[in-house]
Design brief:
The protein is α+β, with helices and mostly antiparallel strands. It contains six helices and 25 strands. The strands form six sheets. It has a six-stranded mixed beta sheet with strand order 3-6-20-8-17-21, with no helix packed on it. α5 packs across α6. The chain is globular and about 75 Å long.
Length: 524
């Protein structure tokens, strides 16, 4: 198995004094102080350290230790801590085990009767670990032939031990997050068109995959060379369990789309991801603690909603800015809220256009919850026929990469055949993404490489115009600094052969017979 993450060269044991460490520390500069370790150029390595006092200044609510501290000498005094404890681990993951083999079995459906695996109290900071969204099916290898697995549900109580109630609002703060130690890698992929495809599956029908490796906050891929960028790590899925009434609403409306959409929805002629909706199915179903093969499992598996789309409970919203410091205000539909999370992303572009399209990874979240009693009625306005037709509110945190220069691509609601659509933002965004892919492929990349890149890099998608009939206008902004070359248009055109960026993404053949959409003007 490959070794991921930085190599630990200087470990620290917080229970030991500076001179008792495996590699004794020093507090002077001198050329004769011997080295304790060796590293090589280009190697990513980890150094742990004590605070500057060597543990002499404590978490105790007293200033006596600092009053007598000598800034040049490490202190030794132990003290009891009154500070908040380290986040409690409530859902742990062993990356060597399958989802159904975990200590607390994972689930990949929404249903009110999936039992909680843990309890937390409002105000408590707790840690949830998670597998990547496929449950480890997709590997770090040279194959592109490789379903959301969620950690939870977690029952939320207030400080007095009273559970969250239907009609409350659950405020979930993301205190910290990141990849699981020792598993610092991810992938971006497209599914075969016969297996669902992605936003542009009629242009890119083959299964493809790119592997990414992490260097701190940065990601790079051997399959898309010449690109490196900081990730805005976030969970793709955070949600509460639906009530039975809400679950029935989901299943009925999505069944209507799946059964009648091809005949009634003109957009199906332009967007080709299939199926139109993923209805309840026992195939591949995991229901946490509910034992497979029992009558209870059989009943719930035929009712439970798939986790693929976002819905009223939050779920798979894939909002790339929900990183450290963010808050999610989720409606509560069942007692205890039954909070679940998963689908961790190291980075994602707006829209996650290739479908399996962020840098998918295993990871952890450290969360803190607050219960706002009666908050659904107070803050969420129903947009539908029942009080259940509400949507969460998201508060974006203060941490994100900073870019100063962007190249912006526009799309309008005219499809590849030249047909006009009326204020259709989906068609406009598809056109913007296609424009960007075609442009970037002029700089030595394959179009498949750019399709995956635009799905996972920190690009910004916008609906720029939605009122000027007949065209909606969508834009896709790409930070130019992520490339190792200048990608802006120039007055002097390049002459001679372009540098072909090799290796390309991993790919399989497309063995289906569905037609591929072509740009009629591309060969002119």
């Amino acid at each position: 198995m490959a070794q991921y993450g930085p190599r630990l060269v200087v470990p620290i044991d917080l229970k030991k004094k500076p001179w008792e460490q495996q590699h004794p520390l020093h507090n002077r500069w001198h050329p004769a102080i011997p080295a304790v370790e060796e590293v090589r150029g280009g190697e990513v390595f980890r150094v742990e350290m004590v605070d500057f006092s060597g543990g002499g200044i404590t978490k105790n609510y007293s200033a006596e230790d600092i009053k007598y501290a000598d800034p040049s000498i490490s202190l030794e005094s132990p003290a009891l801590s009154m500070a908040p404890p380290t986040p409690r681990l409530v859902v742990s993951i062993d990356i060597k085990k399958k989802p159904c083999e975990q200590k607390l079995p994972l689930h990949n459906r929404w249903h009110p009767q999936i039992p909680p695996v843990a309890e937390v109290k409002a105000g408590e900071i707790f840690r949830v670990e998670m597998v990547d969204w496929t449950g480890g099916v997709i590997k770090d290898d040279n194959s592109a032939l490789d379903v959301h697995y969620l950690s939870g549900p977690i029952r939320v109580l207030d400080e007095d031990g009273v559970p969250a109630k239907p009609g409350d609002l659950l405020a979930v703060e993301i205190c910290n997050l990141g990849p699981l130690p020792g598993d610092e890698w991810g992938y971006t992929a497209t599914f075969d068109r016969e297996n669902g495809g992605g936003f542009l599956t009629d242009h890119f029908p083959c299964a493809t995959k790119a592997i990414w490796y992490f260097e701190g906050i940065y990601a790079y891929s051997p399959h898309i060379p010449g690109v490196r960028f900081p990730g805005l790590t976030h969970p793709g899925i955070v949600g509460t369990a639906p009530s039975m009434e809400l679950l029935n609403i989901w299943n009925e409306r999505e069944r209507q789309v799946e059964e009648n959409g091809l005949q009634t929805l003109k957009l199906c002629e332009v967007l080709h991801s299939r199926p139109l909706a993923n209805l309840p199915s026992t195939k591949g179903c995991h229901l946490g603690k509910i034992q497979k093969g029992t009558p209870e499992w059989e009943r719930i598996a035929t009712e439970a909603a798939r986790t693929i789309p976002g819905r009223e409970n939050g779920g798979n919203c894939d909002i790339k800015n929900l990183s450290r410091g963010s808050k999610i205000y989720l409606p509560v539909f069942v007692e205890g809220a039954n909070l679940s999370t998963g689908d961790m992303h190291f980075s994602q572009g707006d829209g996650e256009v290739s479908f399996c399209g962020a840098i998918e990874m295993s990871g952890f979240l450290e969360l803190k919850c607050e219960i706002i009693r009666g908050g659904m009625k107070e803050y969420l306005t129903p947009m539908g026929p029942t009080p259940l037709h509400v949507n969460p509110i998201f508060e974006i945190g203060p941490v994100e990469p900073r870019f100063s220069e962007w190249l912006v691509f526009e799309g309008i609601s005219v499809d590849e055949s030249g047909r006009q659509h009326y204020l259709d933002a989906s068609v406009a965004y598809k056109r913007a993404v296609l424009n960007a892919i075609d442009y970037l492929s002029k700089f030595g990349y394959s179009k498949e490489q750019m399709y995956l890149l635009l799905s996972c890099c920190p690009c910004e998608g916008r609906i720029s115009g939605i009122v000027d009939s007949p065209n909606a206008v969508a834009t896709l902004a790409i930070p130019t600094a992520i490339f190792d070359q200048d990608i802006r248009p120039k007055t002097k055109l390049p002459v001679g052969p372009r540098l072909l960026r090799k290796p390309d993404v991993l790919r399989c053949t497309y063995d289906g017979n569905l037609p591929i959409t072509k740009n009629p003007a591309a060969t002119m």
